[in-house]
Amino acid sequence: MIIPAYNEAASVGRVVRGVHAVCPEARVVVVNDGSTDGTAREAARAGAALIDLPFNCGYGVALQTGLLHAQRSRADFVVALDADGQHEPAEIPKLVEPLRAGAADLVLGSRYLPGSLCYRVPRARRLVSWLFSLVVSLIMRRTIRDTTTGFQGLNARALQVYLSMKDFPETSPDADLLLYAYRRQCRVLEVPVTMHADQTGDSMHGYAKSFFYVPKMLISLFGVLLAERR
Prior knowledge:
By secondary structure, this protein is α/β, with parallel strands linked by helices. It has helices at residues 12-22, 39-45, 59-72, 92-100, 123-140, 156-163, 175-183, 207-229; strands at residues 2-5, 29-33, 49-53, 77-80, 106-110, 117-118, 152-155, 188-192, 194-195.
């Protein structure tokens, strides 16, 4: 289990304990992304292994660091989830079971599928999700409802593909990483999950941040397609 965390002292311990309760034999790794609060202390108290980055590098770097650790540990399956309590640890089996059954290489925990339970998503974030769902679905020629979910399960093949991305996104890997995996023949499956509101109130898809995020992600998607043609 890979949990990138930046200044999540209030919630990371609860998330780690929740993961241990559902998957007692799983190795839980918190990538502490240069936090200035007690994130590392609370994660360690809850029983997580720690990878400390020397300063705040961004979500993408923290995620990539955790994935590299999983690959070097020869993990068969990896689940990535947020440290802010948004993702429900009790639903980790929903992501792992299709991987174990060989039905998918990459499983997305979706807040927008029928059967999901989701908080009231702010309008800006919902608009961003809808936009990239439309773009990615058109390219993939199949419907993907939640391209911005950070709740994902990967088998060893998908893990290798993710880490083969030469320009791994430093800040907010979402639709671009998903498209990259799909174009390299990873089988993608969405499953409905419960998703809670971000307790920090610092979403990367608020109104102001969306202004920069949307064009940046569109360029990144175009870059994935362009690199493949080359």
